[in-house]
Amino acid sequence: MKQDMIVILDLGSHENTTIARCIRDLGVYSEIKPHDITVDELNTLANVKGIIINGGPNNIIDGQEIDVVSELYTAGYPILAFEHRLAQVDNRTYPANEDELKDILSDFVFNECHAEKNWNMKNFINDQVEIIRNQVGDKKVLLALSGGVDSSVVAALLVKAIGKQLYCVHVNHGLMRKGESEDVVEVFQNQLDANLVYVDATERFLTKLENVADPEQKRKIIGAEFIRVFEEEARKLDGIEFLAQGTIYPDIIESGTKTAKMVKSHHNVGGLPEDLQFELVEPLFQLFKDEVRACGVELGLPYEMVYRQPFPGPGLGVRCLGAITRDRLEAVRESDAILRDEFAKAGLDKKVWQYFTVVPDFKSVGVKNNARSYDYPVIIRAVNTVDAMTATIEQIDWSILMKITDRILAEVPHVNRVCYDMSPKPCATIEWE
């Protein structure tokens, strides 16, 4: 990492990512680290220009108030301490609200730390190309290519760095959106001439997931099975020693640190088996979601690909709530296709950051075709966000919601009710599982 860095030490604040994003918006790289990082560990990081100690309401672990290692205060780094939205600089205290925070951080980053504005996507890409080439050498890399934003940007970055040493594998785990696997093959194999291996593992995944209701267990099963598929495909190729992943910074943050509580494990963070046969290549792990898109634009990817609708690694498996059944899985797939179609017609596909349907594992009484029905509800979710760490609810016109509702009730079997999720993040997460 050649860019200057400001390190944020996590003492239980909900605003770590807000501070990190604000610093990055100033043109300086920032990263969140555990509260108990040592001076030696800090010194191994490249180009650290200053430390922010960020306190908050969750700074109690096992009944004890936590603090940073005391030696950090005399390690020679400029320090800015936040505590309950108060900032202390040179023994002065400031209120850190949405108006003053950027000014406080700018003063600290540039005047106290003397950091340079060298965090941008061009520099990031140049750094990563060098890092990837040094890591991989002349070996081959295997990439799980879902066709989503993260894996597409990883693919473009790896192609820039190592060209035909990259082998992309698209696994259809039976949890894809309608027509998605076909689109991936068309774009990456037929149009972009990538080394693409297509694997239809639908039955394999759905069998593994039978009667599994816990969302964390589902994510881990899907993550582990992905690795097994890749291992099998790698054995068919010579020289595969590396596995590339589209892990991004929110995945790491939400999967938990020594200080931060886990929100949910991500299949590419918490679901990897201990006996992994590959060395990982994760060039996007420093980036928030909007930065991933900016990276894709800098790499020259088409707008439609860079701003494609986000889709979780476990796919519809975490939108078919509870234990997956094939009838509910098809209800999710078909209702999602209707939602995407109607949003595109209304121009909402370019306005709303993420939108999808979920089908829970319970039924309700209704009336269909003039007879009593006992079928599933479909829940619509549509949110806007910048970095996926917080999200607001999109206000959809009533006429559009009614049209979507009418189509779902008429076209999707085993459904008799449609609901709209009004919950922001927090307290809800973007996905239901």
Can you tag this structure with a few keywords?
single chain, 433 residues, alpha/beta, Rossmann fold, GMP Synthetase, Chain A, domain 3, six-stranded mixed beta sheet, 13 helices, 35% helix, ATP binding, glutamine amidotransferase, NAD/GMP_synthase
Describe this protein's structure.
- The chain has 433 residues and is an alpha/beta fold.
- It folds into 3 domains: 5-112, Rossmann fold (3-Layer(aba) Sandwich), CATH 3.40.50; 121-306, Rossmann fold (3-Layer(aba) Sandwich), CATH 3.40.50; 319-420, GMP Synthetase, Chain A, domain 3, CATH 3.30.300.10.
- The protein contains 13 helices and 18 strands.
- The strands form 4 sheets. Strands 2-1-3-6-7-8 form a 6-stranded mixed beta sheet, with helices on one face.
- Helix 4 packs across helix 5 (149-162), helix 4 crosses helix 10 and helix 5 (149-162) crosses helix 10.
Layout of secondary structure:
Layout: E1 5-11, H1 16-25, E2 29-34, H2 39-43, E3 48-55, E4 60-61, E5 64-65, E6 79-83, E7 86-89, E8 92-95, H3 101-112, H4 121-136, E9 140-144, H5 149-162, E10 166-172, H6 180-191, E11 196-200, H7 202-208, H8 215-235, E12 240-244, H9 249-254, E13 279-281, H10 289-298, H11 303-306, H12 326-345, E14 354-358, E15 364-368, E16 371-384, E17 392-393, H13 398-411, E18 415-420
Parallel strand pairs: 1-2, 1-3, 3-6, 9-10, 9-12, 10-11, 12-13, 16-18
Antiparallel strand pairs: 4-5, 6-7, 7-8, 14-16, 15-16, 16-17
Helix pairs in contact: 4-5, 4-10, 5-10, 12-13
Domain GMPS ATP-PPase: 119-308
Organism: Coprobacillus cateniformis
Pfam family, one: GMP_synt_C
